[in-house]
Design brief:
41% of the residues lie in helices and 16% in strands. By secondary structure, the chain is α/β, with parallel strands linked by helices. The relative contact order is 0.12.
């Protein structure tokens, strides 16, 4: 198989939630365990850090990986989804898995004649764990795909579990209350393995505390004694790490960095050597060291263009408040959502004083731009509709002058079609 044939198989032949929605979701651990056995239990050959949560998983995973890398360790990083290249999901010390390694893994898989029916995520998470073993990484930071308890990655026994926060998302799978969602995320808590909770609330605190108590797992709530004491223009004053400059500048990153610093403190308690200078360098350069994109990411100046992948009720409030504070002549918003999100409530948070360019990603899960515009009009938001993300962005840029601000977002799938254009 060529690399392109391999990628075509992965995306077209395997069940995939990202492509199909509910029809592609395959909960449960048995297939992942089978695949893990077939490939010789690769995740047992290095130490893992497991990261779950509704929002911030990718940022927290990337920052932890960057800090460990700066401390001199070889670090694997598994995240999802990707924006441009499938190989973004699987990295070692920031470098993407080589194309020939993707092909080799699939050839080995076919030669094993496994009689099960793995999903896209089950197979790619196994690919990541196998590649990390081949690279002889010291640590692997593994981001959960969805939920936690039944997620394919939950076959690992990490040295640390991290749960960033809880909000209502994927309610058809994880539950329609914060406590139910927290229960699913808490499924990554392993007996006697420390766990860090980034953000909790009255409905979720006891869910996590009870799960940790049952497993005799030491638990730390990052909010109780926050590491980040003050934040101003991406400069953070911290309790134990001096002043740090954040490379990720979205307002919501303050809570993520607080979670990361707490997690690093717990790792140090376990004897992991992490010098102070590694923390500073990793926090400041995480996006450069791990390839993280789409988090309050500026891609153009005059007009200033920023994109962000925030796409649910948990991520949107802070994101929209930051957007509303931007000093500009005209705010222009290129926006599209997935139809299975709580679009009505997301629209209520968007700024009223803006020009909108309603669009849709090229996936069957996307809400049609015309339907989105109709719903937006009911909320007092006016604009034009475009059948493609590229057309919407080009129209916004054609209308903009250098003092305007252009925002692109609403969905990771919107960014997946936007970023290749601006990077070309």
């Amino acid at each position: 198989m060529t690399y392109q044939e391999t990628i075509d198989y992965l995306f077209s032949q395997l069940p995939s939630y990202e492509r199909q929605g509910a029809g592609g979701y395959k909960p449960g651990l048995q297939t992942s365990r089978d695949l893990d056995d077939l490939f010789g239990n690769p995740h047992k050959k290095y130490r893992c850090i497991h990261v779950a949560g509704t929002n911030g998983k990718g940022s927290v995973s990337s920052m932890i990986a960057a800090v460990l890398q700066m401390a001199g360790y070889k670090v694997g990083l598994f995240t999802s989804p990707h924006f441009i290249d499938f190989r973004e999901r699987i990295r070692v010390n920031g470098g993407m898995i080589p194309r020939h390694k993707v092909v080799e893994f699939m050839e080995r898989y076919f030669e094993m004649h496994y009689d099960g029916a793995p999903s896209f995520f089950e197979l790619t998470s196994t690919m990541a764990m196998d590649y990390f073993a081949q690279c002889e990484v010291d640590y692997a930071v593994i981001e959960v795909g969805m939920g936690g308890r039944l997620d394919s990655t939950n076959i690992i026994t990490p040295i640390l579990s991290v749960i960033t926060n809880i909000a209502l998302d994927h309610t058809q799978f994880l539950g329609d209350t914060l406590a139910q969602v927290a229960g699913e995320k808490a499924g990554i808590i392993k007996p006697c393995v420390p766990v860090v909770i980034g953000e909790s609330c009255e409905e979720t605190h006891d869910v996590f505390a009870d799960a940790a108590q049952r497993g005799k797992s030491p638990i730390t709530f990052a909010q109780d004694e926050p590491e980040v004491l003050q934040s101003r223009q991406a400069v953070l004053k911290t309790r134990n790490n001096g002043k740090l400059r954040a490379g990720l500048t979205g307002d919501y990153q303050v809570a993520n960095i607080n979670t990361v610093l707490t997690a690093l403190a717990v790792l140090r308690e376990q004897g992991v050597h992490i010098p102070a200078e590694s923390v500073k360098a990793g926090i400041e350069n995480a996006h450069l060291m791990t390839g993280l994109v789409g988090r309050w990411m500026q891609v153009h100046d005059k007009p200033r263009v920023v994109c962000d992948s925030g796409h649910n009720i948990g991520a949107f409030p802070q994101l929209m408040e930051q957007l509303k504070r931007q000093q500009c002549n005209v705010l222009r918003v290129v926006i599209g959502f997935m139809a299975d999100k709580d679009v009505q409530h997301l629209l209520e948070m968007l700024p009223k004083r803006a020009q909108y360019y309603f669009t849709q990603a090229s996936t069957s899960r996307a809400m049609k731009a015309t339907e989105l515009a109709e719903l937006a009009a009911q909320k007092g938001l006016q604009g034009r509709t475009f059948e493609t993300v590229v057309a919407a962005y080009r129209a916004a840029m054609a209308d903009a002058n250098e003092d305007d601000f252009v925002f692109v977002g609403g969905s990771m799938y919107v960014l997946a079609e936007f970023l290749p254009m601006v990077n070309s």
